[in-house]
Write a structure and sequence with these properties.
Elements: E1 10-13, H1 41-58, H2 62-70, H3 81-104, E2 111-118, E3 121-128, H4 143-159
Antiparallel strand pairs: 1-3, 2-3
Helix pairs in contact: 1-3
GO cellular component, one term: membrane
Protein name: Golgin subfamily A member 7/ERF4 domain-containing protein
Subcellular location: Membrane
């Protein structure tokens, strides 16, 4: 049986509040028709809901942003560090969550997801990858960690 694969990458545009560096508070969760036969709509929706939820939970509050802007002149821009720290943590957690999705769910469908940042904007890209390029470093493999991740993977897949 021939497995369907993506013909081209899919862009999920930013649709939330943008930070100065282009990172967004949320990304489009509309099901792309190009994923039909690869990843079902329920799985896609769960992935995007979780990703957007992680970003929102680390996104800085409005008061933090206002403080950054209002105090920027007297603090010579140092007040921007407060919201920047929150945004940086939100971005790191989003990248970590995307990596988790790639390892646990998307990899078995032959697709991967990544955060792409451009000047003043960003988007999530879903693209095909070649299984033959994957390599595992056996000497650095920790079996106990692998067993625990396998159990977590089984539980996660059952939820989806």
């Amino acid at each position: 049986m021939d497995t369907p694969h993506l013909q081209s990458s899919i862009k999920l545009n930013a649709n939330g509040k943008l930070y100065i560096n282009g990172f967004s508070s949320s990304y489009d969760d509309t099901y792309p028709q190009q994923l039909k036969g690869i990843l079902n709509q329920r799985q896609f929706q769960k992935i995007m809901d979780e990703l957007n939820s992680v970003i929102q939970s680390y996104w800085s509050c409005g008061l933090c942003h206002y403080f950054g802007w209002l105090c920027s002149v007297p603090t010579v821009g140092l007040s921007f560090l407060c919201p920047k720290l929150c945004q940086q943590q939100a971005e790191e957690m989003a990248v970590e969550k995307i990596s988790e999705f790639n390892d646990i769910v998307l990899g078995e469908y032959g697709i991967q997801m990544r955060l792409v940042k451009k000047f003043l904007t960003s988007y999530i890209e879903i693209y095909s990858f070649d299984h033959s390029n994957q390599q595992i470093e056996i000497s650095n493999l920790d079996i106990s960690t692998f067993d625990q991740k396998s159990e977590n993977l089984k539980e996660y897949r059952e939820e989806i």
